[in-house]
């Protein structure tokens, strides 16, 4: 599996970012183990774009990719350079970018370091992980709730067909938005809903862009642009509910996308990291271009 992108590496990159005058850092909440949920904001334009990653413990590669893209954006801004002919200084007069790079820091550290770092949850995670021998299949937060099945759109559908008790993946919780991590995300969005929301998961190289036919018409054009630059396949609907992008589309009828990075078994092998980074970077930059 190689070295994973844990909260130490995230904090190191966060410090690097915050040395830039072009970014603002905030903490929107804390996880069950009291780790900060970081938010970075770049630019001050009227069009609000939101990226998040690290929703699922064994998908930490998405956090690493987002941070690497953010660092590159900041460097380009610093040097006043363009991206594909687009002046980033001009672009960020039109756009404001919000990034929550790691929604589930406890789950990420558990996958990478095992239960030793799970503090008071050590015995619980050992039980919930049964019969797995490692934590590489763990997606949930530290008490066994799947954060991307916590949102109140079709939540009951997932409750009725997914595990009924906490476990390493897919348990939607005993109610919607019971967890500090999912609650912090919902509050951030309710406070000011983005115009375009991208949730980065792994894996599959597809982009989900619909929910109950409530997505705006423009999503279909935008997702084709994402496909053109990344090669990722657009998929309108999928039999899945209670995810952040599902709720976002349902509630606001705005553009919401779930981007499934890479292909293979999670955590994705680092041997394909550079290839995944390139594709996601093109897609992420494209998402900053309005229309
Ligand atoms: Zn995921």
TrEMBL record:
<dbReference type="GO" id="GO:0005615">
    <property type="term" value="C:extracellular space"/>
</dbReference>
<dbReference type="Pfam" id="PF00246">
    <property type="entry name" value="Peptidase_M14"/>
</dbReference>
<feature type="domain" description="Peptidase M14">
    <location>
        <begin position="1"/>
        <end position="291"/>
    </location>
</feature>
<comment type="similarity">
    <text>Belongs to the peptidase M14 family.</text>
</comment>
<dbReference type="InterPro" id="IPR000834">
    <property type="entry name" value="Peptidase_M14"/>
</dbReference>
<protein>
    <submittedName>
        <fullName>G-D-glutamyl-meso-diaminopimelate peptidase</fullName>
    </submittedName>
</protein>
<keyword id="KW-0482">Metalloprotease</keyword>
<feature type="active site" description="Proton donor/acceptor">
    <location>
        <position position="260"/>
    </location>
</feature>
<dbReference type="GO" id="GO:0008270">
    <property type="term" value="F:zinc ion binding"/>
</dbReference>
<keyword id="KW-0862">Zinc</keyword>
<dbReference type="GO" id="GO:0006508">
    <property type="term" value="P:proteolysis"/>
</dbReference>
<keyword id="KW-0645">Protease</keyword>
<dbReference type="GO" id="GO:0004181">
    <property type="term" value="F:metallocarboxypeptidase activity"/>
</dbReference>
<keyword id="KW-0378">Hydrolase</keyword>
<dbReference type="InterPro" id="IPR034274">
    <property type="entry name" value="ENP1_M14_CPD"/>
</dbReference>
